[in-house]
């Protein structure tokens, strides 16, 4: 199975869940959930999974679980498909 990685800057407590922009190769994402008890991380995984058409269980934060800057790995999707579908 192939996988892809995406660098993300997460902004919790936003008005809504959305992909904002790509700045210097980093995907900027806003989620409405607060950064409490991993809620913002779960919202990020659900948003990316929905956008990529994969199960939320296939989206994993591999670095930065407690930071704004994260590295997210998506199983079952190649890098070119991820790059094409995550354009804000």
Please name the defining characteristics of this protein:
88 residues, alpha+beta, Conserved Hypothetical Protein Mth637, Chain: A, five-stranded mixed sheet, 2 helices, 5 strands
Biggest sheet layout: 5 strands, mixed
Residue-averaged pLDDT, rounded? 95
What is the first-to-last residue Cα distance?
26 Å
At CATH's second level, what is the architecture? 2-Layer Sandwich
CATH topology: Conserved Hypothetical Protein Mth637, Chain: A
- CA-based gyration radius: 12 Å
Share in helix: 10-25%
Number of separate structural domains: 1
- Continuous helix count: 2
Strand content: 35-45%
Shape: globular
Helix and strand string, N-terminal first?
EEEHEEH
Low-confidence stretches: none
CATH 4th-level superfamily: YggU-like
User: From the helix content, strand content and strand pairing, which structural class follows?
Assistant: alpha+beta
CATH class: Alpha Beta
- Beta strand count: 5
């Amino acid at each position: 199975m192939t996988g892809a990685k995406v660098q993300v800057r997460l902004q919790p407590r936003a008005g809504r869940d959305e992909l904002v922009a790509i700045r210097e190769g980093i995907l900027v994402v806003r989620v409405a959930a607060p950064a409490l008890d991993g809620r913002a991380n779960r919202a990020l995984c659900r948003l990316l999974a929905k956008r990529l058409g994969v199960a939320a269980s296939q989206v994993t934060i591999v670095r930065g679980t407690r930071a704004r800057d994260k590295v997210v790995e998506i199983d079952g999707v190649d890098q070119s498909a991820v790059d094409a579908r995550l354009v804000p």
